Automatic annotation (TrEMBL):
This is 8245_t:CDS:1. It comes from the Eukaryota. It comes from Funneliformis caledonium.
């Protein structure tokens, strides 16, 4: 809700296109020297998650 000077309540809904735009990754690609976290595939991420689940059980 946004309040105007006249104390009227204005409903301002965000539209789907704006949500998608906010969720997009920045288009600037990081420099490999600055990248500290290694990029892994989805499969590698799932394997690591499965190992964590097994360990915690």
């Amino acid at each position: 809700y946004l309040r105007s000077k006249k104390e009227e309540t204005i409903h301002q809904m965000i539209i789907d296109e704006e949500i998608i735009e906010l969720m997009k990754e920045p288009e600037v690609k990081p420099n490999n020297e600055e990248l500290k976290i290694p990029i892994i595939s989805n499969y590698e991420a799932l394997v690591a998650l499965n190992q964590i689940i097994i360990y915690t059980e």
